[in-house]
TrEMBL record, chain A:
Keywords linked to the UniProt accession: Heme, Iron, Metal-binding, Monooxygenase, Oxidoreductase
UniProt keyword Plastid present: no
Name the record gives this protein: Putative cytochrome P450
Superkingdom in the source lineage: Bacteria
Alphabetical list of PANTHER family matching this protein: CYTOCHROME P450 BJ-1, P450, PUTATIVE (EUROFUNG)-RELATED
Alphabetized GO MF terms: heme binding; iron ion binding; monooxygenase activity; oxidoreductase activity, acting on paired donors, with incorporation or reduction of molecular oxygen
TrEMBL record, chain B:
Keyword field contains Transport: yes
Name of protein: Ferredoxin
Glycoprotein is among the record's keywords: no
UniProt GO molecular function: 3 iron, 4 sulfur cluster binding; electron transfer activity; iron ion binding
Domain of life from the UniProt record: Bacteria
Length: 389, 75
């Protein structure tokens, strides 16, 4: 099939690229070329993406990684894992981590997250307008929470923030690799410390589990440290941006903070306008919506596009905090559904409830289009949020 | 003679977020129906997979009971 688009699409933070919009109207599976020049399938339909997120004919590994099509150059785009044992390896890791991130385990954290949010908003209010809500709330909150959960000293935050930023740099593979190496070294250092002085935290509990090597715990810890902050930072930032650029929705939430659960799901749905997606490799030949995909080919499950499929979400470009939005696929679907989803939801509920009640007159200090975004980061999102109230 | 224990599985469809984790773990015990999960067979023989599904539910929507006593989720 002919290549119909080159990735990445050029688009604003809150708008879908015109070419992507056109492709979505033509079908659900598209032949594209990645930023690396490799060919891939971009799947944009909600029903297809959701089904394929939980289809064992697709995986994250490749039998011959050196020949595999790639999405980008950072290590996040690298083909990792063993093709033969992928399903068993995934099940093992999942079983190892699951008890530490279950809703039951997360629930007692709620008051702590709420207290941290209150403290950060106190500082913002004391600073006075104009202020950067990104730097003062969106960035520190998820880091404080994940540090407390994992048992990572918050005083080290400057160091690992710099490394994760380097690791996520899509424009500079050498820098990305360096950042990741520093992070893993730091992970090893932490594991060594927890072996001697265990605390009431996830890393200490993983150290106490049988049959888990220090290298594995260090790797998992740093993956959790990265995943636990970057993604939520982006969702808080995008949520503020979405709400403040849709003043009617912001007013609705201020008027009734009880709408927060729906608002959070709508933010999760609307925050990604598509064009990228979760990379998978076909483990064998399969057909997606009538299109033949060969074993070994790269398939991008575009969850942002799926979240904007009018068949699943009528009038998808409209932000509506009262719509039923929880069928979004931002956390994935099925076996690989995001382990951190319960924690992320607690953080997002705390932030948006408190912002709406304490800063009802909140507004952007610049035009929405003038908000600087992070073009080089894997996870995207705003680089700043200048606000007044 | 003691009766063979029977487990009862219920899904709180108001809490369910349709993550599909339970269906992925135990396709014979859960189905997604209108974006929400339900357990088509309410009473089942004891089966570790049911408890795994209850533990894994990100919405904590699945409850497993044995003779009225809650045994899952286990955390």
């Amino acid at each position: 099939m002919e290549v119909v688009a080159q990735l990445p699409f050029r688009q604003g933070a809150l708008q879908t690229a015109p070419r992507l919009r056109e492709l979505r109207s033509l079908g659900t599976v598209h032949r594209v070329r990645t930023a690396m020049g490799d060919e891939a399938w971009l799947v944009t339909g909600h029903a297809q993406v959701r089904r394929l997120l939980d289809d064992d004919r697709l995986g994250r590994t490749h039998p011959t990684p050196e020949t595999a099509a790639r999405t980008g150059e950072t290590l996040f785009d690298a083909v990792l894992g063993d093709f033969a044992t992928e399903a068993a390896d995934h099940a093992r890791t999942r079983a190892l981590l699951r008890p530490h991130f279950s809703p039951g385990r997360m629930r007692p954290l709620r008051p702590r997250v709420e207290a941290l949010t209150t403290r950060l908003l106190d500082e913002l209010i004391e600073h006075g307008p104009p202020a950067d809500l990104h730097a003062m709330v969106a960035v520190p909150l998820p880091i404080l929470v994940i540090c407390a959960l994992l048992g990572v000293p918050y005083r080290d935050c400057e160091r690992f923030r710099a490394w994760t930023a380097e690791a996520a740099d899509v424009g500079d593979p050498a820098r990305s690799q360096r950042g990741l190496a520093e992070l893993y070294a730091y992970g090893h250092e932490l594991v060594a410390r927890k072996r001697v002085e265990p605390g009431d935290d996830v890393i200490s509990r993983l150290c106490a589990a049988e049959g888990v090597s220090d290298a594995e715990i260090a790797g998992l810890s740093m993956a959790l440290l990265f995943a636990g902050q970057e993604t939520t930072v982006v969702q808080i930032g995008m949520g503020v941006l979405l709400l403040l650029s849709n003043p009617d929705q912001w007013r609705a939430l201020v008027h009734d903070p009880g709408l927060v659960a729906g608002a959070v799901e709508e933010i999760l749905r609307a925050s990604n306008t598509g064009g990228g997606g979760i990379p998978r490799y076909a483990r064998r030949d399969l057909e997606i919506d009538g299109v033949a995909v060969r074993a070994g080919e790269l398939v991008l499950l575009d969850n942002g596009s799926a979240n904007h499929d009018p068949a699943a979400f009528p009038d998808p470009d409209r932000m509506d905090i009262t719509r039923p939005a929880s069928a979004h696929v931002t956390f994935g679907h099925g076996l690989r559904y995001c382990l951190g989803a319960p924690l992320a939801r607690i953080e997002l509920h705390a932030v948006f409830t408190r912002i709406a009640t304490r800063l009802p007159t909140l507004r952007l200090a610049v035009e929405p289009d003038a908000v600087r975004m992070r073009p080089d980061a894997v996870t995207g999102g705003p680089a700043e949020l200048p606000v007044r109230w | 003679m003691r009766a063979v224990p029977v487990w009862r599985t219920t899904v709180d469809r108001d809490r369910c977020m349709g993550s599909g984790v339970c269906v992925a773990l135990a396709a014979s015990l859960f189905v997604l129906d209108d974006e929400r999960s339900r357990a088509p067979v309410e009473f089942v023989a004891p089966d570790e997979t049911v408890l795994d599904a209850a533990d894994s539910c990100p919405a904590r929507a699945i409850t497993v009971t044995e003779n009225g006593r809650v045994i899952g989720p286990r955390d």
